[in-house]
Design a protein that fits this description.
The complex is a heterodimer.
Chain A: E1 2-6, E2 15-17, H1 22-29, H2 36-41, E3 43-46, E4 49-50, E5 63-67
Parallel strand pairs in A: 1-5
Antiparallel strand pairs in A: 1-2, 3-4, 3-5
Chain B: E1 2-6, H1 11-22, E2 29-36, E3 45-50, H2 52-68, E4 72-83, E5 87-95, H3 98-115, E6 118-124, E7 127-130
Parallel strand pairs in B: 1-4
Antiparallel strand pairs in B: 2-5, 3-4, 3-6, 4-5, 6-7
The chains are: A alpha+beta, B alpha+beta.
Chain lengths: ~70, ~150
């Protein structure tokens, strides 16, 4: 089981899902119509490290975060 | 040094403290950038969400980069509401000579705008509205959607 957190303006409660890779996470999240636009524009972090590949293996208890477009300052 | 404050920053106090803290460290240049909320488009203010774990790692990478050039970076940012004509962001660079600080402050502030995990909302009629059009996708965004 991994935990998916939605940061900033996404306004969605965290999800606990079964996933072995980020590809599995992508498949599950893409079934949610509300998330489509956020998925297309968000960066992804695994355990607070930004990642750039879907092949990253996940283990039980990992935290996946979706980071939508930012604007600090 | 990364400092986060609830609400507006007390800019004179922060700038003075940083100045005094670094004064004995033989830096010849101190270049602060202060971001202040402007009255535009009928906003009452701005509001900010921060994801601190990734902001901390972003900042540590910048500390290292500055250190490699003999310089030092610091920053302060607000969490929550900051009203018009108040300030929400200070970034500053200290360096032995001016050139390094002048170049670093540009890159440091621009990378902050593009990468720091902070979300901005306009406050209009007491409601928070995500500043989507002014926001920037972090490098590598769209990974889960197959859109790079």
């Amino acid at each position: 089981m991994v935990r998916v957190e939605f940061l900033g303006p996404i306004q969605k409660e965290p999800l606990n899902i079964e996933a072995n890779t980020l590809s599995d996470v992508a498949k599950i999240l893409s079934q949610d119509e509300e998330l489509k636009e956020w998925i297309a524009t968000s960066a992804v972090a695994v355990n607070d490290m930004l990642v750039s590949s879907l092949d990253i293996p996940l283990k039980d208890g990992d935290k996946i975060s979706l980071l939508p477009p930012v604007c600090g300052g | 040094m990364l400092e986060l404050y609830k609400g507006a920053l007390d800019v004179p106090v922060i700038l003075k403290r940083w100045y005094e803290e670094e004064a004995p460290n033989n830096y010849g240049a101190y270049i602060p950038f202060v971001g202040t909320v402007r009255a535009e488009d009928g906003i009452e203010g701005l509001s900010f969400d921060i994801y601190e774990p990734i902001l901390q790692s972003w900042f540590r990478a910048w500390e290292q980069k500055a250190n490699d050039k003999g310089a030092k970076v610091v920053m302060a940012h607000s969490i929550g509401d900051v009203m018009v004509h108040e300030s929400s962001y200070i970034a500053a660079v200290f360096s032995p000579k001016r050139r390094v600080a002048l170049e670093l402050i540009d890159e440091y502030v621009e990378d902050f705008k593009a990468s720091a995990p902070i979300w901005k909302y306009d406050i209009i009629d007491n409601k928070r509205i995500y500043a989507k059009e002014r926001s920037t996708q972090i490098k590598g965004s769209g990974l889960l959607g197959g859109i790079q």
